[in-house]
Amino acid sequence: MTRNFDSLLSKEIEKARFKKYKLGEHDCALFAINVIKEIYGIDYGERIKGFYSSKIGYLKLWKEIGGSSLQEITEIIIGEKGREMRKVGRGNLVLYKNDMKGEHLGICIGDKVAIVSVADELIFIDILECECCWRIG
């Protein structure tokens, strides 16, 4: 974990808090990727940043990468399977699945996960509602 972890995480959450959702620019995946890059210096965005701006675009990108879901794409890009939620820690990448809203990536901030939402900018979901996580750093 970086020395300035708490301040970097807070800064990234605040930067995203009122930023409007825009697919391919400020969406759940790019938010999570940007937070990880700022905190850990790891850039997982090389394969996706700038490659989509619509739902059709990201579905084509998924096909090119070789996955059929956000979880599969994340596992390919990160290079490991998602872990059980009982292993989650602050700053980890988290997958939230909702039957109505689909899959979303977010960042664990304690007992909540920060996720960029289409309707509400940044939202905070209870960690117990999430599917799996990836330890970063």
Automatic annotation (TrEMBL):
Protein's recorded name: DUF6950 domain-containing protein
Name of one Pfam family that matches: DUF6950
Positions of the DUF6950 domain: 4-136
InterPro entries: DUF6950
Organism: marine sediment metagenome
